[in-house]
Design brief:
The protein has 12 helices and no strands. By secondary structure, it is an all-alpha fold. Helix content is about 75%, strand content about 0%. The longest helix has 27 residues.
C-alpha cells in the first residue's frame, strides 16, 4: 500500500519540521518567523501555479494546479485561517515549552479528530478506538504530572493552553480537510489537493503580512527578530510533508483516519532530538508518557483498519 509509505514519509518530515520550529523560535519573535514560513512556502508553490496556467505543467500531472471558482477559493480561505490560527498558538507554545512536552500533546490530536467526527458526523467508536481514546487521556494526565516536575502546571500555564488550543484548531482543520477533499457524492466539496495546498499558502502569507504590520512592527524593538537558516527549513520540510500527506489521501484505498494517525508518529523524531541534542529534563517519565501516546495511536489504527 503506497499511501501508507507516503504517510510515514510525511510523519518523518513533520518531525524535522518541529525541530526546525523549536530552533528558529529560540529567543526569537514569533510573528516574523511565522510570516517568513508562509512566505517561503508560497514561493515554493508559485512556480507550480505559473507553470500550470501557462501549460508548462499539463493537466493530470502530479504537480498540476487546476483552475478554481470563487466559491472554492472561499473554502480554501477558511482552511487558511484555521491552519494559521493553529500555527500561531502552536508556535507560541513550542517557543516557551520543552519539545518533549509539546510533541506528545500534539500527538493526541487524532483523538480530538475522532471525537469531533463522533459529534459532527455521527460516527460511532468501536472498542479499539475507545481504548485509544482512554489511553490518550491517561497519557495526557501523566504528561501533566511530568510537567509539574519542571514547574509547569497544566491548569494555569498559558503556554500549555496555547498548545492545547493549537491542537483543537488543528483537529478542526483535519475534519475540514475531510470535507474539502471528499467527493460531492460523499458529501464533500471535491477540491483538488494541489490547488488547496497552493492557494492556502498564498492566503496565509497575506494574513501574516497584515499581522506583521499590526502585531509585530510597532513592537519590533521589544520583540527582536534574528534570522536563522532553520526558518527556511520550516517551510521546506512542512511543504513536502503536506504534499506527501495530501498525495497519500488521493491514492485509492487511502484511509484518512490511518493517514492522520501515522502523521503523529512525527513526535518520535522531535522527542529524540530534544533528548539527544537539547538535553531536556525528566526524560524517563516523559518517555513512558510518550509510549502511552504511541499505544493510543496503535489502538486507533487497529480500530480504524478493522472497524468490526
Amino acid at each position: 500500500m503506497i499511501w501508507i509509505s507516503f504517510a510515514f514519509l510525511s510523519a518523518l518530515l513533520l518531525g524535522f519540521y518541529d525541530v526546525f520550529k523549536k530552533q528558529s523560535l529560540r529567543e526569537n519573535a514569533v510573528v516574523p518567523v511565522l510570516f517568513l514560513n508562509t512566505l517561503f512556502s508560497s514561493l515554493l508553490f508559485l512556480p507550480l501555479l505559473i507553470a500550470s496556467h501557462t501549460a508548462l505543467i499539463p493537466n493530470g500531472n502530479l504537480f498540476y494546479v487546476p483552475p478554481t471558482s470563487l466559491s472554492q477559493q472561499g473554502y480554501i480561505f477558511i482552511k487558511s485561517a484555521l491552519v494559521l490560527s493553529s500555527w500561531f498558538f502552536g508556535y507560541i507554545g513550542i517557543k516557551h515549552l520543552p519539545l518533549t512536552l509539546v510533541g506528545p500533546i500534539n500527538a493526541t490530536r487524532p483523538v480530538m479528530v475522532l471525537l469531533g467526527a463522533v459529534c459532527l458526523f455521527g460516527e460511532k467508536l468501536n472498542l479499539w478506538q475507545w481504548a485509544g481514546v482512554l489511553t490518550a487521556i491517561a497519557a495526557f494526565y501523566l504528561l501533566s504530572q511530568s510537567g509539574k516536575k519542571e514547574g509547569i502546571d497544566f491548569r494555569h500555564n498559558r503556554w500549555i493552553f496555547s498548545v492545547i488550543l493549537a491542537c483543537i484548531l488543528g483537529a478542526c482543520c483535519g475534519l475540514y480537510d475531510k470535507y474539502l477533499m471528499a467527493s460531492p457524492d460523499a458529501g464533500g466539496i471535491g477540491l483538488d489537493r494541489v490547488a488547496v495546498q497552493t492557494y492556502y499558502n498564498f492566503y496565509q502569507c497575506a494574513l501574516m503580512g497584515m499581522m506583521m504590520l499590526i502585531l509585530w512592527l510597532p513592537h519590533r524593538k521589544t520583540q527582536p527578530f534574528h534570522w536563522r537558516w532553520t526558518i527556511l527549513g520550516i517551510s521546506l520540510f512542512l511543504s513536502i510533508a503536506d504534499f506527501s500527506y495530501l498525495y497519500a489521501l488521493s491514492l485509492d484505498g487511502a484511509m484518512i483516519a490511518i493517514v492522520s494517525m501515522v502523521r503523529r508518529a512525527s513526535v518520535l523524531v522531535s522527542f529524540l532530538f530534544a533528548a539527544w541534542i537539547l538535553k531536556e529534563k525528566n526524560l524517563k517519565d516523559k518517555a513512558i508518557d510518550l509510549g502511552l501516546v504511541v499505544l493510543s495511536m496503535i489502538f486507533l489504527c487497529v480500530g480504524s483498519w478493522h472497524p468490526a
